[in-house]
Write a structure and sequence with these properties.
Structural class: alpha+beta
Shape: globular
Distance between the termini: 51 Å
Strand content: over 45%
Order of helices and strands: HHEEEEEEHHEEEEEEHEE
Largest sheet: 14 strands, antiparallel
Mean pLDDT: 81
Length: 253
């Protein structure tokens, strides 16, 4: 290699090293824009301190503020994987999670986190995010989403679940809603059930290979004869026996 080529290679190597270091040591506050964009502004990162690699702050959703800390591992980056360790910023046992993001892979390990339901609903529609209340707890040992070879399970519990409908109808209290997420090949799916609330829920949901979502439910009022409740269900479902059949299809945002 000639002296000129060696100089060029050396310059490019230094430039790449400086670029990586700049991103690695960038102020943690820059992450707020990324978080806000990914969640449609539903979730923000406030009071961020430290760097993109290692820092802490508050995950903010509405009136909820959750102290968190994070650490990005270096060696997985050399394989093109961003591996993030999330922990409580107050020293508590939760929230916690290990998240690995690759070119076409999203994996979660040792997860125990609780977030406002609106954060999850934002994945379906900004309108949905503004019409739900309560908190969702997510727990998973290992679950990985990879086209064609997804695997693992996770448990979701929606506590104090409530849905508000357009038109000023009475909000629907759902009590505690539960599902087990199963990742299998190109599909995520699970059953839906609940305890307590104004209605009994039984059904299932599926997210397909093209990020298409399907939800199928049978909803039965626990107190038959409530005209307000029946009017609310009639706006979103079809009468079926002693309840209503509700089906929804659409894309993830």
């Amino acid at each position: 290699m000639t002296r000129g080529r060696r100089a060029v290679v050396h310059f490019v190597g230094v430039a790449i090293t400086v670029a990586i270091a700049a991103a690695w040591l960038a102020p943690a506050a820059l992450l707020d824009l990324r978080v806000a964009h990914a969640t449609g502004g539903i979730l923000r990162l406030a009071d961020a301190d430290g760097t993109v690699r290692h820092g802490h702050g508050n995950a903010v959703a509405g009136a909820t503020r959750i102290p968190i800390a994070w650490h990005v591992e270096f060696w997985p980056l050399l394989r093109g994987v961003v591996r993030i360790q999330l922990a409580s910023g107050s020293g508590a046992g939760t929230p916690r999670a290990t998240i690995a993001i690759g070119t076409d892979t999203l994996a979660f390990h040792d997860v125990d986190a609780t977030l406002p339901a609106a954060v999850f609903a934002a994945a379906f529609s900004p309108i949905a995010a503004g019409s739900v209340a309560g908190e969702i707890n997510l727990r998973a040992n290992d679950i990985e989403w990879t086209p064609g070879s997804s695997r693992g399970t996770a448990h979701l519990v929606w506590n104090a679940a409530r849905i508000a409908f357009a038109g000023g109808t009475v909000p629907l209290d759902l009590g505690e809603v539960r599902t087990m997420v199963t990742a299998d090949g190109n599909v995520l799916s699970g059953p839906i059930g609940n305890e307590g609330g104004d209605v009994a829920l039984r059904g299932e949901w599926t997210i397909g290979a093209q990020d298409s979502v399907r939800i199928a439910l049978h909803v039965t009022p626990r107190r038959p004869g409530s005209s307000d409740l029946e009017r609310a269900l009639a706006t979103i479902g079809t009468a079926d026996g002693n309840g209503w059949r509700i089906e929804w299809r659409g894309p993830l945002q």
